[in-house]
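Q: what does this look like with farnesyl diphosphate bound?
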Amino acid sequence: MPELAIGPRFARTLWANPACGDRDSWRKRMPEASASPKVTPAAGAAHPGPPPQAEDGGERVKPPRHVAIIMDGNGRWAKERGLPRGEGHRRGVEALRRTVRAVGELGIEILTIYSFSSENWSRPATEITDLMGLLRRFIRKDLAELDNNNVRVRIIGERRNLEPEIGRLLDEAEELTRNNSGLLLVVAFNYGGRQEIARAAERIASLVAAGAMKPGDVTAHVVMSHLDAPDLPDPDLVIRTSGEQRLSNFLLWQSAYSELVFVPTYWPDFDRAALDNAIAEYRRRERRFGGLRRVMAP
Ligand code: FPP
């Protein structure tokens, strides 16, 4: 298993890279984006130039504090190689290990990953068994290492009605790493954005029914404070791999003002170069949050 060494926090190593294009032009420009996994900092992205500058000479946008990823394309990656879909998912876990390590090196504070959606239950039973097996193995095999690297794990999504063993593993992952202060890895498991908002509405409705709150008290802030992880900042950047350009029920509430970056790379091929490209694209964006002036990321 590759080491998940999470390096010191440094946020000044992100440099502007060419924007994303189709999968082939991406590979031509950044051949390492499709090559085999690179796990050392030295094997990271090309650094073709300094970060974008604002007119006053300052950096245009700070690196993201919270990155969320829709890890898509495992099945197509496998199909293109004549392999079973499960192999694509297994290689997807390797890409996840690389990414956890890379975001730690980049000083990103929070990484949220879409590991299993509420709708993924509609997949064939064999694929669900594969995915559950990978989650079990990921927690059993990688948890100690994540813990050693000061990574804190949190889970969002519906916990009711899960297989008891899976529920216990998720609890264990959160419990063991509760006091860690490094990267926060948020695993969206059995997660759907609509379902999360419905759960918040259910909790608020109970408070109103109990007389603890009036209907007129229900504001956006109240709804937000009943979501699965209300203490976390919204993602600054949502990345989706595989070229698909949609959110697929991921962090619907929280991504209201997130920058969306769609990369053509299939998830098993996602590496440091692809991450650096996505972040460089994010840093070229102007965030206004509905106002007229550019707002610096926190
Ligand atoms: C989407 O690819 C990916 C998933 C539905 C699952 C993502 C899971 C992993 C990367 C591994 C398991 C995660 C953990 C935390 C152990 P797809 O199957 O929809 O690909 P396709 O669109 O090409 O068919």
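Helices lie at 23-29, 74-80, 85-105, 125-148, 164-176, 193-209, 220-224, 272-284. The radius of gyration is 19 Å.
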